[in-house]
Amino acid sequence: MVSRIEVGLKDASLDGRGIRVLKQLREDLKITSVSSVYTVSAYTIDGELNEAELKNLSENVFCDSVVERYTCGEPLLKDKSFTFAIEIGFRPGVTDNVGTTSKEAIEDVLKRKLKGSAYTSTQYYFYGKISEGEAKEIAEKLLSNPLIERSTIISGEKWDSKKGFPLAVPKVMLKHEPKVEEVKILEKTQSELGKLSVERCLALSNEEWNAIKGHFGKEDIQNERKQHTLSKNPTDVEIECIAQTWSEHCKHKIFNAKITYEENGKKEEINSLFDTYIRASTEEIGKKVDWLVSVFSDNAGIIKFNKDCNVAFKVETHNAPSALDPYGGALTGIVGVNRDVLGAGMGARFIFNTDVFCFAPPNFAGELPKGVLHPKRIFEGVRRGVEHGGNKTGVPTVNGCIVFDERYLGRPLVYCGTGGTIPAKINGKPSEKKEVKEGYLAVMVGGRIGKDGIHGATFSSMQMDEHSPATAVQIGDPITQRKMYDFLLEARDAGLYSAITDNGAGGLSSSLGEMAQLSGGCEIDLEKAPLKYPGLDPWEILLSEAQERMSVAVEPEKSGAFLKLAKERSVEATVVGKFTSSGFFHVKYDGKTAAFLNMEFLHNGLPQMKLEAKWGERSEKEPKLTQPTNLESELLSLLSSYDICSKEYVVRQYDHEVGGGSCVKPLSGAQNDGPSDAGVVRPILSSQEGLVISNGICPRYSDFDTYDMASCAFDEAVRNAVCTGADPSRIAILDNFCWPDPVKGEKTPDGEYKLAQLVRACKALYDCSLAYSVPCISGKDSMKNDFWSGGKKISILPTLLFSALGYIADVSKAVTIDFKGEGESIYLLGMTRDELGGSEYFSLRKIEWGKAPKVNAREFALAYAKLHEAMQKGIISSAHDCSDGGLAVAAAESAFAGEIGAQIDLRKLPYEGEKRNDFLLFSESAGRIIISVKKGKEAEFEEIMRESSFAKIGKTTNKEKLIITGIEGKEILNAELGKLKEAWKKTLDW
Amino acid sequence: MEKKPKIAVLAGFGINCEIETKYAFELAGAQARIVHLADLLSKKDSLSNYHCMAIPGGFSFGDDISSGRAYGNKLKYSLWDEMQGFIRQGKLIIGICNGFQILVKVGLLPNTGGKYAQEATLYANASGKFGDRWVCLKEEEKSKCIFTKGISKIYLPVRHGEGRFMARDGEVMRRLEENGQIALRYCSQSGEIATEYPANPNGSQEGIAGVCDRTGKVFGLMPHPECHIFPENHPRFARGESAESQMGIHIFRNAVKHIQKELL
Fold first, then answer.
1. Contact A108/B70, CB-based, under 8 Å?
2. If we measure between CA atoms, which residue out of A333, A368, A338 comes closest to residue A353?
3. A548 has which bridge partners?
4. Domain with B170 in it: what CATH number?
5. Domain spanning A817-990: which CATH class is it, in words?
6. Which CATH architecture best describes the domain A2-155?
7. Is B128 in contact with A814 (Cβ distance < 8 A)?
8. Domain total in chain B
9. 3-state class of A825 per DSSP?
10. What is the pTM of this model?
């Protein structure tokens, strides 16, 4: 029996959801004829319920009787006066979090189990004049995403006030008999294998096929297989498992490739970018510092925080899923990276999140390529996904930024990061060490397995009906995950498991495969894995990327206690196999072997890629650059630009204080609304020690030289942390590469150049890392960020995000960006040059020319160390990095955030290059910090800084104005702080 | 040595402020313990072991259906008698943010009529958005609330999407005022009751931010007192603006003092 309860507000004026839709209709779809929108929440319950029970549930679960009304079995709206009604519900197999809670709440009230499930949908009733075409447009472009949601449209005229919307039960039903199939590869030709690779989405190259064929062709391998009643050919389980293990995502083939790099006719061999640059610099630094605990080997990098506590940090990307469904993609991104931290060492407790997004401008008015969502919709969806993922998990978002460029139209970049703490020792053992021995049980914990995330790309070519599961995109479930997280930390402290890792890409194949390397093998019984619905093939169970799952290794004598605690915490935990020392990844289904793979071959049999990279400098003619007459209006435009403007709209919707350790928040200043350079959080409440979190990203410099792009991003991350009080000798960093495909091929004729860009970025990373003595402790690469539509390709800018994790001994010494009082001296640290290539100022004027800023890391590192010394002495009043928009923007921000005026003289500025007021104001030279020093402490400050390039450039004033004297000695800018702040705040004041 | 009050800080099912709430109670001199709701439901632990129950903030069950509803129903349908006994003994209950939503949805607050019927709600913010911002609060002069005694003005963060206090009707509102059940109101910097956004961050009626029951011993509030227990929690600490008197710690100290005086 299927019943439906509908709930809506008594007073329509409280209907925030309806009001928001109305606003979006007007602003985004330009539909102005709708006068109001009323919304109804519908709960469809599949289960035997009598009338009294339904009434009980309506009153005690679904309807908030103070403000809402409800109906059971008939529509809430009987009056046909609306023009159109649209109902949006999920497609089968899509995570319905409210539905899950509804089922549990029903069972709590009725005190019995419900056989079926509960499903939610939302109904929107539109009043005013709209056509059927417009109703369709609203359903598709605003209210639903057809990949995961269905929509039903009914006009007011045709409305049946007894029945309302037809009852829909999106239950997954697969009429499929699961089986293991042989994949005949041994007899196939190269081109047939290529075809197979495409059909099955295996992404295996010719060389990789040869390695696989070679392996399966071996006589001893064939004898082993015979013993397990396997044919000579691999099974589908085996081939999928190999392809997944060898994927770019898991093996980082490009970063580990042998590359011939050519620059100015000179050739150089690079055997693995990762080993040569990233690992090498960290190892070098590791010889000198004692706080690296676990780098590159685990799900997250781990460093020492203090003698009792370590910190794990990881940033992930979730770009492709966020392009398809921004909300689900971003939500899965943030809860996914949480699991990386939960799977680091023996499992860390979440302390902070940090998010960085790259979007096309939200006011994009050009023609959208087919298959691309409008950037504003992507922005909003991603924002909301991260909001729900972070807030509902209870992790504060302490820092982040958003970058805008049209080249992110096809692929937005969604970087989600999480840091967590872990006691240095747990039950007497170092917490970074995982232990898996023969006989330990393999246990899967958390959510169930469905077709989620299996070869997302094959989805579009599949035959669909109303009961086919939507698999291309997933929606995270923060509460199922939070329950699992609470349980696992409890189990960790009780010593109930000995190793843990997350189920992300590659599902069980990857998580159990990784842990099996510690014992030397495993044996999995796939039929034991709990499924969301029957009908999955064994290879799908092994590879499914269904969310909210962790895998752990449990000693047999502890399994009883582990499973009991899981049950008490309402968390599903299932023994799916055991670890062995057989040397084989052994998978069974219903007792029969489905995969028997040599571990050595599986993990080390992948042939190394060989690639060519060729660097060539750009050479453009210098355009004619006129000097603007009104510099104030240039500054106002810069402050209003998407990259620079206030992100308060986003920041306030992210909880940035949960946990109680919040010190420097994303917003600071006299009105709590200035832009902080970094976040400071106290991870252990009883200690004054803190963590400083910042980011550096400047993809636009990639148009010039990715070496400069990478070094500027590195410098920006470090500088932001130092500005806020981080000890420069205790900063670790994460690298996160998002690149367009750099492998030369038919579709990528410029692959050699793009690969050279990658090489140069890695060289910069190496140089900066050593010069600053800031090691990379973990990273991620996403190498295929191209979008094809109608034969045209949109590639992202080569983008490298550095996320810094610093240490501050005493959080009370943290410094913020806002000027604090009048009459203080303003200093600028660092040299300004005419480096405006890729700057906000040139971008605004559409000038694609110039020099990107250069980083002199050794010089900057010394200056930062000295600045930190001054901060420890308590003589620094404020510090703010000069980056996007240059000195003028930084000075304006420090001034309006502090509500303190400033008078600056450009003649005092240490400067090299073509002397022009606009260049001095808006140059983005790296390594610069605008500082205000406490009264009477100038001499002390100057003495500390004497070895670095700096100058006193002005003073703070009691006038609420920013006044700047130009190189000719004349006043070139005199702006009210209120006006500057308004320009900065209005752009994203949604 | 003075005996320490025992506090059960509830956790589980999406509650997520248990650690800082526990810490705030400890800082105030109590002995606090994080208790998973499942352990109370399964009788592994009992409320009778504690003098005060704190339901911290979070997103129990993801705020699905209506914030606090599903968690509250677990209390209402499986722990009701134990809770009634707890309240009858004059023990204390505090609900913060999600905890407040839970107490209101199950009728423990404000309970002006004494029948534990839902008399009010905390509905979606008038802004339509989740909001994290700091707000000024002042104690209602004639409030009976034992938690807010002696607090003239405090400064705390709010972090919620559903915090708009609305009474069922004028009668409930009248009794709230009459019984001294309004504990805290959002106010402007100069101390006037805030009715406008953002000083009133969610559109609450009469600027109501926290209410207590008729005894003053069951208390709930939307802002987070456990998140202003250090000077550096203050958003302008670097400007030298933090002040001890405006910290949330006083709410926990009041609870500890009351228990020491009346229950130990």
1. yes
2. A338
3. none
4. 3.40.50.880
5. alpha beta
6. 2-Layer Sandwich (3.30)
7. no
8. 1
9. strand
10. 0.96
